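ARCHIVE CARD
Drawer: 12
Card no.: 0347
Subject: one protein chain, sequence and derived structure
Cross-reference: see card 0346
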Amino acid sequence: MTPIKLAIVAPCYNEAEMLPISLPRLLSLLDSMTREGKVSADSFLLLVNDGSRDSTWQIITEAHERDKRCHGLNLSCNVGHQNAIMAGMLTAVDGVGMADAVVTIDADLQDPLECIPEMVDNYYDGYDVVYGVRTSRQSDSFIKRFTAECFYKLQSQLGLKTIYNHADFRFMSRRVVIELEKYEERNLYLRGIVPMIGYPSTTVDETRMAREAGETKYTWRKMLRLAFDGITSFSVRPMYMILTLGMLFVLVGIGIGIYVVVSLLKGVAVPGWSSLMLSLWIVGGVMLMAIGLVGLYVGKVYIETKHRPRYHVEQYLH
């Protein structure tokens, strides 16, 4: 068995506090897998700086100077998590990196590194894609766990083929990444695209861990946007505002409905007022939500027709 050349791709956005912790662990993992003969000695890390505003790129540059296995890809501006992952993977398998396979993992290392050797073993067993599936979310808040569960169930009901409880911690062989490049969407949702490729795949169980330094850069707004992208394959901010406004109207309508019921029980309701107010708020809110949803699909088509680049590379350290 010839050891593969593995690239560990880690997107970074304002991770200056976490990188001094994660870099030694990633390099130690490469050392361990090299000694065990799982990967070749020319395997490397590829840290993708997604338009960070702190000292993230400086830390990556210094790490590259100390150890040439630390490659750095500096994007000219922030293009989003999914596009940063795509940029890293394509760079890792191109004429410079020429990796046989890639593993994508966030730089905060909340996904366990211990799963990566198991992923490589699965590759030797004939699998081209290995998904990290979260068996426990105890490090996440209750609200985040609940909304994530609802989102995965909603995706399944809408017919979207995804891996349940899988984020972006995955192993892919070089031929999968090459096939993935054929998908030319400007706005990527890799969790939905990768399963469509259809090559042999399996899963490994992982327990998501708490972040050791800094704060997560994946805000609720970004998670909500990714959720809509997973269903519509695109997002347009003004349309989201309309959709949110429609939801707000529905909530107000529910509040008015509760008030109407209380008024009726107390005998102080004005005849005809109840039905009029409920019609205005609830029906109006539903209509705005519908218009916003149609707008999302129109916006998706609008952006896709432009065929603009997903990202621009400012510098590549290798």
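Annotation on reverse: The CA atoms of residues 260 and 274 lie 6 Å apart. The radius of gyration is 23 Å.
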